[in-house]
Amino acid sequence: MTTAAESTTGLLQSAAGNTTGLVQSAAGSSATSLVQSVDWLAIAPPVTVAVVALVVLVADLFVPAARKSLLGYGAVAGLVAALALIIPLHDGDRSTFCLTTGTRACSYTADHFTLVIQALVLGGALLTALLSIGDTRKLPAGEFWFLLLSSAAGAALLPAARDLATLVIALEVASLPAFALVGIKRGDRRSSEAALKFFLSSVVATAVMLLGVSFVYAATGTLHLTEIADRLDDVPGQLGTLAQAGVALTLVGFAFKTAAAPFHFWVPDTYVGAPVPIAAYLSVVGKAVGFSGLILVTVVAFPSYADVWGPALAVLAALTMTVGNVAALRQSATRARSAVRLLAWSSVGQAGYLLVPIAAAAYAGNRQIGSTVAYALMYAVVNLGAFAVVALVARTHPGNRIADYRGLYATRPLAALAMGFFLLCLAGLPPGIIGLFAKVTVFSSAVDAGLGWLAVVMAVNVVIALYYYLQWTAALFRGPAEGGTEQPRTRHRAPAPLTVAIVLTAVAGIALSGAPQTVLRFADVNLF
């Protein structure tokens, strides 16, 4: 009996051991299958900028006050390194943080769309850094460079995001440091007011967008954009209204971020209250972030609702370009900071042009998105150049009125020629051929999509914009006003980084104007 009992006990222990081993083996196998591999090269550009931001913040503790400019040069070097890391990714075929169970949906994709937008935002951040070196004497240097790099890291992450969670996080990482950058001028009431207005409007936009994202998730059960696109085609009837509300609220949230009318009210005061380099950053990088997110949610996640967001974006485009150009037309040349205010309203009008191909994509397919990206690249180069000249003039004319630019050619001929070229590019007139061709691509996208009425509205707005662009350009080459009381100009040597920024944007604009057909080819490429 004892032997039998021992034998039975041994068998039970053996069976229990085998069962435990099988469970542990299965658990280990399951755990292994859920581990996501990380492609470090794919995520290198935003990670590099984030690491440099932390290094600059720590270095600020040890760098003496007299050598704080070294932090700026460190930030420039980090942005150059991040741009260089885009080159090995040029094939556009890398993805990481992908699901390992049943689908290949990924949270981060380095496709051609991602790489182009990353080059745009990192290049814009680099030029902003060049504008800021030497202009941060009265600002806390360490905090300034840390905030700028942190925002740039979020901006570089956003175009690669392929799930709503990553998209929202990247958007906020890009936006939150920008609030502080706008209000970083301590003791300046205008700067604080601008930061508060920017913060409140952005918080409202984020709240609306998050509500829409939660509705979309409730209706589809997934956050990955490609999975959402598949499941929105087959939403249960009782969840249809929830899905529609989610799509609408998500689009409204991004309309705030892109400064589309009527959600544009924060733009002029924010640009005027911010330091000039930060106004330049918001006008280019901030716009690129908003439009990248809008493109991803419309074209990638919500294609089945194209009959809803297509007409809505077309109306927003017409309203935005009209409001922006009419408001810019009404700016007084003698009003304080009218130069920045006019560029702010001009950026609202340009946002309307950028919306046109996205609306056209609802009718004519994803290839229209290339027109938006091509126009954004042209706009980034020439608008940053215009802000660079504004920053130069502001060093001797803190009021920064348009009237202060009268006769600029007499004292700074190269700066005046560069500014005239940038303004003519924005207007779409020779010798700024690149501006003309970029507008032609946007106009063509509207016509190809059957949006003839929107093309007509755009043509009218281009004519309206000619007046204030040409008026400013003409002032650069006029002599002093008769009987004027303006102070004679004192020529100061511009900081080398500021001069480099003006030269880089001018050379890039001239090179693009010399080969405008590249814009047409670029606009015809499917970036996804």
Report on this structure:
- A two-stranded antiparallel ribbon has the order 1-2.
- The radius of gyration is 26 Å and the shape is globular.
- A hairpin with a 7-residue loop joins strand 1 and strand 2 (106-110).
- The protein is 71% helix and 2% strand.
- Helix 3 (69-84) packs parallel to helix 5 (141-157).
- Residues 1-9 and 11-32 have low confidence and may be disordered.
- With 528 residues, the chain is mostly helical.
- It contains 20 helices and two strands.
Break the fold down into its secondary structure elements and pairings:
Blueprint: H1 2-33, H2 44-59, H3 69-84, E1 94-98, E2 106-110, H4 112-132, H5 141-157, H6 164-182, H7 189-220, H8 225-232, H9 240-257, H10 267-273, H11 276-301, H12 306-329, H13 338-364, H14 369-394, H15 408-411, H16 413-427, H17 433-448, H18 452-476, H19 496-514, H20 517-523
Antiparallel strand pairs: 1-2
Helix pairs in contact: 2-3, 2-5, 3-4, 3-5, 4-5, 4-11, 4-14, 4-19, 5-6, 6-7, 6-11, 7-8, 7-9, 7-10, 8-11, 9-11, 10-11, 10-13, 11-13, 11-14, 12-13, 12-18, 13-14, 13-17, 13-18, 14-16, 14-17, 14-19, 14-20, 16-17, 16-18, 16-19, 17-18, 17-20
